[in-house]
User: Fold this.
Amino acid sequence: MNKKLSLLASLENIYVFTYANIVKRASTIDVIWFNERKMPSYFFEVELTTDIYNSFIKFGELRDFYAKFYIISDVARKREYETKLDSNIFREIKSRIKFMSFDELAIIHTNSHKFFKTNILI
Assistant:
């Protein structure tokens, strides 16, 4: 997990799934998972030192898509996440935004590799 996200990307450019100005804004999201129809289904923002509030603003601009939103950060920033998400401005999308710590992500990553390795061998 010590790789740059860009090295893990399966696309050089994101799909043009809507108006150009929205695609341009979406392209600033750290990670996007697309469904089989090439529509976004998950948006992930990795927050090391930048303001989580800015990620919430991006998510708000993408709220019309049937997608889930994740903030990936250090567990020490969870309180900041909760406090800022509690702002009335995010009321409409609050239930669609989740927090995942780096440790939780590492566990999921490790277990997914074990799962695929096991299933390939069967």
Summary: The chain has one domain: 5-121. Residues 78 and 99 are 7 Å apart (CA to CA). The chain has a mean pLDDT of 89.
